[in-house]
Model the fold of this input.
Amino acid sequence: MENILKVDKIEKYYGSRSSLTKAIDNLSFEVEKGEFLCLMGASGSGKTTLLNCIGAIDKVTSGQIYVGGLDITKLKGNELNKFRREELGFIFQDFNLLDTLTAYENIALALAIQNENVSVIEQKIKRVSEELDIKDILNKYPYQMSGGQKQRVASARAIITEPKLVLADEPTGALDSKSSKMLLEKFNYLESLGATILMVTHDAFTASYARRVIFIKDGKIFKEIHKGDYSRKEFFDKIIDVVTLLGGDLNDAL
Done:
């Protein structure tokens, strides 16, 4: 399988020379094309810093990050902006939809920035809205939508440009259990379409929908587990076993 993401011995420090904090400690892993990978860890474990480095929001102190074979740690200025615009999709906990635009316009904006043809935009939005069950709300504004609907619109916006990698930061954090389940089932559907998803979460139920879970502790990989042939319920139990092994570090994952 083709690797979409390769994180190679990265380190990230914060602070001054007299007071350094190591947020990421010599961390390496790879993600295959079409994989749904979850990062779990307690607050301060380094998982959000890691996601920010992969999303080119933050710079690594050392090491390399490759997305589609491109070393993004070397990108600057317009090249970096182009990479983030064209190769990454972002899904945030608080949706980040523009309140003055309809669902259709929020999704279309990502393509319009790339100067996509209007007819192509219409075709792509029609297809993705059917896939994510948001066809009936395309003309609604964010204030007229439920949390689950907003997050599915945000998901459509993230994948509409067919990015190499979709980064999801606590995507179910603001949703009730029913909306969370619906969104996660759509994530599995997106995975079946070939989307590559890297998700950060505290929640074991959310993580159980992924194909693989990497647990981060003190900026390092503590443990990695694969779903394989396990059912989602069996995989959830495996995740809980690791949470228990970590003791108090992941109490908020339950």
Remarks:
- DSSP finds eight helices and ten strands in the chain.
- The chain has one domain: 3-253.
- The helical segments are 47-54, 77-87, 103-112, 118-131, 147-159, 177-192, 204-207, 232-245.
- The chain has a mean pLDDT of 90.
